[in-house]
Amino acid sequence: MARVYNFGAGPATMPVPVLEQIQSELLDYHGEGLSILEMSHRTPAFSAVIGHAEETLRRLMGIPDTYAVLFLQGGATLQFAGIPMNLMRTGRAGYIRSGLFSTLAWQEAQKHGEALVVASSEGTGYDRVPDPGSYTVPQDLDYLYLCENNTIYGTKFWELPDAGAVPLVSDVSSCFLSEPVDVTRYGLVYAGVQKNAGPAGLSCVIVRRDLIARGPAKAYCPSYLDYRVQDEKDSMMNTPNTFGIYACSLVFDWIEAQGGLEAMRERNRAKAALMYAALDKSSLFRAHAQKASRSMMNATFRTGSKELDDEFIAGAEARGMIGVRAHRSTGGMRASMYNALPLEAVEALTAYMEEFEAAHPAEAEAAAAGASGEKSARSC
């Protein structure tokens, strides 16, 4: 069976060469006589795997030695609690609510201290990220938290907030390794790896060592979530997600072989440009995100009719394009265009969008009239 085009938000498509290497090494890893799935994390062979993963990631992202690199289980969600338990020393942190996951992180932080909403775009249905010039960051905060790319709503912070002396904490799960980044602008940056870096069940936490040198801020922080301990133990205070780390290491190698994060950015820009051009010229489909906030990784769109949306999704699946259905909280469609998704996948999706619109001229005309009416109402 031919491989499908996977537009799913995560677990997401992985590079075929990586999958082929995993397949070839699955029964016998490098002549060890056993699978990586069976290998003890205390063996020299696995120590080399995790060491190589960290070394390659540091090189790709330009991570200095003043930052710890941790490979932890529990995905990104576990860090909603880990971050305040480690960093909320005075008991007051700031959160920018730009979608569901930053809201969930904010709700979790309220269990550990005062979680101040510094800015929010909830009032406009999270169709944009808050304008950095529309709010100020109190300088007595332990940290300022944001979700940099909002998978559900298809928005992205293209300009980081000016937090002053307050450490910036960012969830980059759905834009991790998609473009170059200046790690030194953050106090902590983390990602669930299942979108751009590997299989589900693993997170990568990159944190300034001076922020965790005194240990966790909360005495009740479990040892597993103690970033200082995890740094001292090289992410192996217990048995880590060995297979996930191995797979991520191969993806890091693949990214480096493609030309690094600069090359990823150019690939991703091309896919996003094609997708948004199709949306902007369409009468039937409308993008959810405002142009200035559009994500390069996740394009969210809809027709305005659930029945039409369902028909479009079914047709996409019949044509070998899966994962197009958007999050259950929003409805509509979403195209996640992560690193490993080829340009031809987006070409196939946009061609189908044109075909679908041509087959529904009355609906397209009605949608265009409705959009025109909305613009007129806003101008009054």
Polypeptide structure, described:
The chain has 380 residues and is an alpha/beta fold. It has two domains: 16-258, Aspartate Aminotransferase, domain 2, CATH 3.40.640; 260-379, Aspartate Aminotransferase, domain 1 (Alpha-Beta Complex), CATH 3.90.1150. It is built from eleven helices and 14 strands. The protein has helices at 16-25, 44-61, 79-87, 100-109, 209-212, 227-232, 242-258, 260-281, 306-318, 343-358, 361-379, and strands at residues 5-6, 67-73, 92-97, 114-120, 144-147, 149-150, 155-156, 168-171, 188-192, 202-208, 286-287, 298-302, 321-322, 333-336. The strands form four sheets. Strands 2-10-9-8-5-3-4 form a seven-stranded mixed sheet. The chain has a three-stranded antiparallel sheet with strand order 11-12-14. Strand 6 and strand 7 (155-156) form a beta hairpin. Helix 2 packs across helix 7 and helix 7 (242-258) packs across helix 8. It is globular, with a radius of gyration of 22 Å. It starts with a strand and ends with a helix. The mean pLDDT is 96.
